[in-house]
Amino acid sequence: MMFKRREFIKKTSIAGLMVISLPEIVNAAIPSSTRLKLADSDIILFQGDSITDSGRKKDDSNYNNTTSLGSGYVVQAAGDLLLDYADKGLKIYNKGISGNKVYQLADRWDKDCLEIKPDVLSILIGVNDYWHKHDGKYNGTIEIYNRDFRALLERTKAALPQVKLIIMEPYALKGIKAVDDTWYPEFDEYRFAAKQIAKDYDAHFIPLQTVFDEALKVAPGEYWSADGVHPTLAGSKLIAHAWVKVVKG
Amino acid sequence: MMFKRREFIKKTSIAGLMVISLPEIVNAAIPSSTRLKLADSDIILFQGDSITDSGRKKDDSNYNNTTSLGSGYVVQAAGDLLLDYADKGLKIYNKGISGNKVYQLADRWDKDCLEIKPDVLSILIGVNDYWHKHDGKYNGTIEIYNRDFRALLERTKAALPQVKLIIMEPYALKGIKAVDDTWYPEFDEYRFAAKQIAKDYDAHFIPLQTVFDEALKVAPGEYWSADGVHPTLAGSKLIAHAWVKVVKG
């Protein structure tokens, strides 16, 4: 924690923001009308990049345990779900892989999604589609992201017509380490695309950028993310809280 | 999950237990009169054995991150605390070590507790004091557990007169793998001792045995613990929920 706590609190107190709790602020950012109702024995699959992966063990097909779920938002959300819905017999999987862009999800989609037959599929993908391009390591464009993401969902819905979808918004914390002004406005296009895709494919959309922007009113960027992209434990719990809100209402 | 879900639900439905949520059941087991109020910049230290340790990285002095906090109840509680009290600048440490009995906490207490100067100290210790004796690997008795635990708290209060204490009850899930009838009634003495010690040293007491017993009404033992002692992810979140309840009321 490198921030000047006293100054920060003074600033936020002036804005009058300390009177309601952060979970309440996050809840306000996610309309409860979008509630996704879990059913008995639902299989929940989390898919994405390093933010989802978070050091999970790769060579197993296990669920509901910390080794398979990693140390990020998935295990925090899974803890909440397995406690709150202990009577439901949920099976929770994490198949995120660090560095993934949309086309890399597509490459492994049969094995890491369709064969698992999720009832609920949660996808957080897009920051690398931009970031790796920004850093000259990838030639993708917003058009490719858009096209590949839609193709992935078409394929998913064809194989799993009943699947309930959650699409999480790619986010970044401007001014924190890796994320500077050069990201904008181009990175925003990936956020907008994810939102439109969620709408077009009838997915529950979690506005993570809004969630983080709200959280920044309570504690500074470094509290939520070490590099502007990867969440700290506090940031992981923030994402998990937003996710669980979609289910709990 | 090896249990017959349908039968189990039928049984619990007959008992009329499915109408309130598990978090509510847990809350009912912990009187809200025992609330511990967190202050700005509080240092919170979790101490104990493998249940606390949960694979944390040992050779660092870090806090608030998943590597240092392990994958058990500490990281689940820390996630909740860092989100709910994001404005407080909490520092959360885990110094649990697998296999520890009370005397082993004492051996490392200067470095792993007193030097950290916790404002809130949470201790979960005792199952190995009994288990290792039961298995013929340790010669301790309930008298030694009682004496050593009290000496540890005397030493702690002398060095840190203002410290707020939380003592968690050692628990076991009878009939799950390692825990059979031969544990009883002797193991219960360790539970009763911890409760009396908490009372005598003005500590907040978390009745984990009661919490797990209540949880067993909603899902079977294997859902909460793989071997009767070490919690699953669901069990870890259960402990974390009970812990956070003491703080949130």
Q: In words, what does this structure look like?
A:
The structure is a homodimer of 249-residue chains. A five-stranded parallel sheet of chain A has the order 2-1-3-4-5, with helices on both faces. The longest helix of chain A is centred in the middle third of the chain and has 18 residues, at 142-159. In chain A, α5 crosses α13 (233-248). Chain A is built from 13 helices and five strands. In chain A, 47% of the residues lie in helices and 9% in strands. The two termini of chain A are 32 Å apart. Residues 13-18 of chain A have low confidence and may be disordered. With 249 residues, the first copy, chain A, is an alpha/beta fold. Chain A has one domain: Rossmann fold, CATH 3.40.50. Chain A binds chain B through residues 1, 5, 9, 12, 18, 21-23, 41, 54, 64-67, 69, 71-72, 75-76, 78-80, 82-84, 86-87, 89, 215, 218-219, 223, 232-234, 236-238, 240-241, and chain B through 1, 5, 9, 12, 18, 21-23, 41, 54, 64-67, 69, 71-72, 75-76, 78-80, 82-84, 86-87, 89, 215, 218-219, 223, 232-234, 236-238, 240-241.
Mean pLDDT of chain A: 92
Q: Which ranges of chain A are low-confidence, i.e. pLDDT below 50, for 5 or more consecutive residues?
A: 13-18
- Cα distance spanning the termini of chain A: 32 Å
Evaluate the radius of gyration of chain A. Answer: 18 Å
Tally of strands of chain A: 5
The number of helical segments of chain A is 13
Protein chains sharing the most extensive interface: A-B, 40 and 40 residues
- Spell out the CATH superfamily of chain A: SGNH hydrolase
Q: Can you summarize the main beta sheet of chain A?
A: 5 strands, parallel
The CATH class of chain A is identified as Alpha Beta
The SSE order of chain A reads HHEHHHEHHEHHEHEHHH
Give, in spatial order, the strands making up the sheet with the most strands of chain A.
2-1-3-4-5
Return the CATH architecture of chain A: 3-Layer(aba) Sandwich
Helix content of chain A: 40-55%
